[in-house]
C-alpha cells in the first residue's frame, strides 16, 4: 500500500531539494526570491485557477462529500484561530493546518489507489478547494491585518474594515480568477485554443515552480528556531486533520470511496500556496516554508498509515 504514496511524494521532495540546491550554489540569489514569488502569485496561479474553474459545471457535481470535508476543515481552522488569536500569524497557521497539496500529490495518489471514482470525488473538491479556502483565507487575512493596524493606532470603523476586506478579497490574484472562471463555465462556452494552450502551459508550471521556490526559500531561511512550530503544523496537518475528518465523516454516515478519497486529501501535506500567502502578507514565512518541507517528509510515513486504516474502514 505504500508504493502509490511514495510514487506521488518523491517527485515533490525532489523538486524542493532541487530548489534548495539551486540557491546553495547561487543559481538563484536572495534578491530574486521576491520576484519569483510575484511571478507565481500574479501569473502562474491565476492561469491555473481560471482554467480549472472554467470547466466546472456545478449541476453535475456531488457536493455531499465535499461538505463533510469542509466541515472538518472549518473545525480545524476555527480551532487554530481560537488557540492563537485573531491575527495574521494565526491565519497563516490555520491555512497551513487545512490547505492540502491536492494537485501535485493528491491527483496521482488518489488515482493510483481509488481509480476513476476516487478521482471524480477529488476533482470535485479541487474545483472548489481554492475558492473556499483561499477566498475565505483572504478575508481572514485582510480582517486580521486591519485589526492589527487598528491596534497600532490606525483605527477605522467596523463597516469600513469589512468593506475593505471584502473588496481586497475579491479584487485579488487568487479569488478573482476563480470567480471569473466559474462564471465563464456557466455560459457553456469552451476556452478558445489560442487562449487555452497558454493557460495550460502557465498552470502546469505552477506546481513545480512553487515547490522549487519553497526549496529556494528554505535554503535562505534560518530554520533552527522554526523546527518546533513547523513540526507542530506538520503533525496537525498530516495526523490531526485526517483523524478529525474521519470522525466527522463517520458521524455523518459518509462511507466508501468518497469518504476514503476525502480522508486521503485531509492527510496530504501542506500545499505550497500557503507559502505564497505568507510571503504576500509578510508573516510566518520561515515557519511556513519549514512546515511545507517537514509535512511533505512526514507524510511519507503518515499517508501509508492512513491508507491502511482506510482499507480496514471501507
From TrEMBL:
This protein's GO CC annotations: plasma membrane
Keywords noted in UniProt: Cell membrane, Membrane, Transmembrane, Transmembrane helix, Transport
Cell location: Cell membrane
Recorded topology in the membrane: Multi-pass membrane protein
GO BP annotation list: transmembrane transport
A Pfam family annotated for this UniProt entry: Mem_trans
Segments crossing the lipid bilayer: 6-23, 35-54, 66-87, 94-114, 120-144, 165-187, 199-221, 233-253, 259-278, 290-310
Keyword RNA-binding listed: no
Predominant cellular place of this UniProt entry's protein: membrane
Coiled-coil segments: none
Family note: Belongs to the auxin efflux carrier (TC 2.A.69) family.
Name the UniProt record assigns to this protein: Transporter
Organism of origin: Comamonas aquatica DA1877
Amino acid at each position: 500500500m505504500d508504493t502509490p504514496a511514495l510514487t506521488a511524494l518523491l517527485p515533490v521532495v525532489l523538486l524542493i531539494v532541487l530548489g534548495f540546491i539551486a540557491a546553495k550554489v547561487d543559481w538563484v540569489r536572495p534578491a530574486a526570491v521576491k520576484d519569483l514569488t510575484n511571478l507565481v502569485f500574479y501569473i502562474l496561479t491565476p492561469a491555473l485557477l481560471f482554467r480549472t474553474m472554467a470547466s466546472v459545471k456545478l449541476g453535475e457535481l456531488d457536493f455531499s462529500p465535499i461538505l463533510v470535508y469542509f466541515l472538518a476543515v472549518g473545525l480545524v481552522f476555527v480551532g487554530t484561530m481560537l488557540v492563537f488569536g485573531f491575527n495574521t500569524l494565526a491565519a497563516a497557521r490555520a491555512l497551513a493546518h487545512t490547505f492540502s497539496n491536492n494537485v501535485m500529490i493528491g491527483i496521482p495518489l488518489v488515482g493510483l489507489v481509488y481509480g476513476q471514482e476516487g478521482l471524480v470525488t477529488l476533482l470535485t473538491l479541487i474545483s472548489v478547494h481554492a475558492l473556499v479556502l483561499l477566498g475565505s483565507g483572504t478575508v481572514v487575512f485582510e480582517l486580521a491585518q486591519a485589526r492589527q493596524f487598528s491596534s497600532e493606532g490606525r483605527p477605522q470603523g467596523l463597516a469600513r474594515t469589512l468593506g475593505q476586506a471584502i473588496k481586497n478579497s475579491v479584487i485579488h490574484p487568487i479569488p478573482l480568477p476563480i470567480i471569473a472562471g466559474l462564471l465563464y463555465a456557466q455560459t457553456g462556452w469552451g476556452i478558445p485554443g489560442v487562449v487555452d494552450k497558454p493557460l495550460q502551459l502557465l498552470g502546469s508550471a505552477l506546481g513545480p515552480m512553487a515547490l522549487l521556490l519553497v526549496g529556494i526559500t528554505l535554503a535562505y531561511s534560518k530554520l533552527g528556531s522554526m523546527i518546533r512550530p513547523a513540526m507542530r503544523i506538520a503533525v496537525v496537518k498530516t495526523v490531526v486533520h485526517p483523524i478529525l475528518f474521519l470522525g466527522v465523516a463517520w458521524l455523518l454516515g459518509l462511507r466508501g470511496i468518497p469518504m476514503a478519497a476525502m480522508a486521503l486529501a485531509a492527510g496530504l501535506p501542506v500545499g505550497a500556496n500557503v507559502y505564497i500567502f505568507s510571503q504576500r502578507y509578510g508573516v510566518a514565512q520561515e515557519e511556513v516554508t519549514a512546515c511545507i518541507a517537514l509535512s511533505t517528509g512526514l507524510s511519507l510515513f503518515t499517508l501509508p498509515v492512513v491508507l491502511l486504516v482506510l482499507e480496514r474502514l471501507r
